[in-house]
Predict the 3D structure of the following.
Amino acid sequence: MMIYADRLKPLWIIAISIFVLGSCSSAAVGEQRPPNMVIIFADDLGYGDLGCYGHPTIRTPQIDGMAAAGMKFTQFYAVSSVCTPSRAALLTGRYPIRSGMVGNRRGVLLADSTLGLPPEEITIATALKGQGYATACIGKWHLGHRPAYLPTRHGFDYYYGIPYSNDMVPTPLMRNEEVIEEPAVQETLTARYTDEAIQFIERSKDRPFFLYFAHTFPHVPLFASPRFKDQSRRGSYGDVVEELDWSVGQVLRCLSELGLAENTLVCFTSDNGPWLQYELKGGSSGLLHEGKMTTWEGGMRVPAVAWWPGKIKPGEVNLTVANTMDLFSTALSLAGVDLPTDRVIDGRDLSPVLFGREELEDQPFFYYRNAILSAVRKGPWKMYLITVDSLGGQAGKLIEHNPPLLYHLEHDPSETFNVSAAHPEVLAALHKEIAEHQANLVPGTFMLDERETQ
Ligand code: MG
């Protein structure tokens, strides 16, 4: 059933009421069963593309309301600046170089790719399914479209969506392992995904569920349904984002109406920064430098909002340096599933941050450009060994830096002032972090490039 409700009581008012009144009912529900989890993953949405992250003309009242009712992160990262590795990282909790979901010739899986996320990888869906969760993947997959690699082989009970990017022709629409439309009619994808997501929630409401809702847009080419087309003051890009915002509102509304909001964590974020090469068809990274295909902040720092009425204090703005791999560990923790011990898990449980219990210690975050380590961040400091731009005469060219570049991201989020000469001790400490990371790194058996030639 599609729920259309344009004039909604603001969600943040509902959430604040629930939080202020206490969480007796949520505690009671929480004791009965582990919480549901919903991850809404936009594609190529930039750090500056939402109202609550400062966009002046794209209207996103639902996500803004979600942030007002929950927690907004200002230093949250996708783990790659392109689709395939980013999705692998989120679902496995591991740097994608570990699963082999990176490549230097091919940065992502293409329509003629024959391989995908290795079967031995453990996804959030695999882990939660083992705990009795209903699981669904709605939307873009992009971790292998051959049968052996589809969502249904990676822990998802149900799949509805396109198996790779919408600019790869043809773009089939699939249900489970069957192509049901080719090419997919893209104008109505967001609306149909939303309908499918709501149907999944409704039919799963009596048991714990995990919904991975990975939108196709605002990845180019841009398509919005007739209801949203030509409505935004930001042009076709704004139309698409405003429809996504509507979709988020529908999901939250559905959870609230079914009485599930107080036992459901919803996270909204993006798989990488805006595709600036598409100029007005691409998004904005706001005050951050550069976009997709780069390890500059604009390529990987993304909007991130967490919502759980009664559990997350409304209106929090959190400065923790976190990333999508953390959602893996957080999901397993909330579901009461132990982390795998036979492999390295790079994400960490964000529950203490979400519930305001404590801050997490600084941990290094590594920025890969495909299979190449480009930079590391720890605390406020980011050191680059290699940069690559997506725009200008040097676009796509790897540029090595010796001495490295160093930015203080909390003083200089736009990465304007290289201060490496003044901080040799910081460079040394960050070099040490890289050395430790690489000493323990076992790359995937083969990378995307090599796999394609086999
Ligand atoms: Mg993307």
Notes: Residues 1-9, 20-30 have pLDDT under 50 and may be disordered.
